[in-house]
Design brief:
This protein is an alpha+beta fold and 175 residues long. It has two helices and ten strands; from the N terminus they run βββββαβββββα. The protein has helices at residues 71-89, 160-174, and strands at 10-12, 15-17, 39-43, 47-53, 66-67, 98-107, 111-112, 117-126, 131-140, 146-155. It has a six-stranded antiparallel sheet, with helices on one face. The termini are far apart.
């Protein structure tokens, strides 16, 4: 539960209420098959929770599971889902953000196992304009054990196309 909001059915004056979130393809700038997370479970203005279940169809699946380094992309896509949902609520178009990196990624496993459900909690902790930082924690949904933790730095230019054109021109001048 985040921000006092329960994502499961509750009885309020004998009416069942449930939060319904749009499909990820409406929140992410990615297209299948590169949408690696499964669903947005909860969201508010500051934080969100997403999930992914490792299945035989999971991208990057190896014999022993999905390598833990793919978790970095699960974290990044969960941030994108959080930001995309804020745009969705404001009736704004979904735009591209750029993952700048992290100073530290802590991983408690080498692989995510087939059948395992991962819960990703992302919280916006700094920045309001183009530069932002999110605290990300991935847990095993069944046990709550922390599998990954990082603070990711995001660059979200106001106009991605103009930024990329400008960077491309600067790159062309220096090479």
């Amino acid at each position: 539960m985040i921000g006092g909001h329960e994502n499961f059915p509750t009885v309020k004056n004998k009416v069942m209420t449930v939060a319904v979130y749009p499909p990820l393809r409406q929140l992410l700038p990615h297209q299948p098959p590169m949408i690696l997370i499964d669903r947005l479970l909860e969201a508010n203005a500051r934080e969100s929770i997403c999930e992914v279940t490792i299945t035989p169809e999971s991208m990057f699946l190896e014999a022993v599971g999905v390598p833990a380094f793919v978790g970095f992309e699960y974290l990044a896509q969960s941030i994108a889902a959080h930001i995309g949902y804020q745009h969705y609520l404001a009736h704004e178009p979904i735009t591209v953000g750029l993952l700048m990196g992290t100073r530290r990624l802590e991983t408690a496993c080498q692989f995510f196992e087939l059948g395992q459900t991962l819960r990703i909690h992302v919280a916006h902790v700094w920045g309001t304009l183009e530069l932002r930082r999110f605290r990300c924690t991935m847990t095993a949904a069944s046990t709550g054990a922390v599998l990954q933790h990082a603070e990711l730095h995001i660059f979200k230019p106001n106009n991605v196309q103009s930024y990329l054109e400008e960077v491309g021109h600067d790159h062309a001048r220096t090479h």
